[in-house]
């Protein structure tokens, strides 16, 4: 039994499984899911199916490769759907993760904004209290006018 040293990196293990980058695969799945959700994809699939059906109905019998119940077409469409559904779900999960991070950042920003508003509200209230004890311009003007009138009366 060998003991591994904690101050040294582990030796690389060889694996029979192929290595893939989950982030790159996720980006690819999002691109595919975005394409599957477009009108262009619907048009392409409609044209493909229309050509397939038209060919296998109108072409000479020796050139037809998928007769009326179109079993091969059904198989191809099922295969496409079996790959499309997990790719779409993977893309949705990645979007949910991004939305969750964005929501947390928005909430933190809202909390900071709320704290700033509360601080400014307290500061304004403090200034109002302080201003209540300070002579205002209107008060000084009225007092000067009163003093001027008193001086006029004494003369």
Automatic annotation (TrEMBL):
This protein's name: DUF1003 domain-containing protein
Domain of life where this protein originates: Bacteria
InterPro entries with a match to the protein in the record: DUF1003
One Pfam family hit: DUF1003
Keywords tagged on the record: Membrane, Transmembrane, Transmembrane helix
Source organism (scientific name): Nonomuraea guangzhouensis
Record flagged with keyword Protein transport: no
TM region(s), chain numbering: 41-58, 70-90
């Amino acid at each position: 039994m060998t003991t591994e040293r904690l101050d040294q990196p582990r030796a690389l293990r060889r694996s029979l499984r192929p290595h893939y980058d989950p982030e790159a695969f996720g980006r690819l799945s999002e691109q595919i899911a975005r394409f599957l959700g477009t009108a262009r994809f619907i048009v392409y699939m409609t044209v493909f199916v229309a050509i397939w059906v038209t060919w296998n109905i109108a072409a000479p019998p020796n050139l037809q490769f998928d007769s009326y119940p179109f079993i091969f077409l059904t198989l191809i469409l099922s295969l496409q759907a079996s790959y499309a559904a997990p790719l779409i779900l993977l893309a949705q999960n990645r979007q949910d993760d991004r939305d969750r991070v964005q929501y947390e950042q928005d909430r933190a920003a809202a909390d900071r904004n709320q704290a700033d508003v509360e601080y400014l509200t307290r500061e304004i209230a403090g200034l109002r209290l302080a201003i209540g004890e300070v002579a205002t311009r209107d008060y000084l003007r009225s007092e000067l006018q009163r003093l001027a009138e008193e001086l006029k009366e004494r003369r």
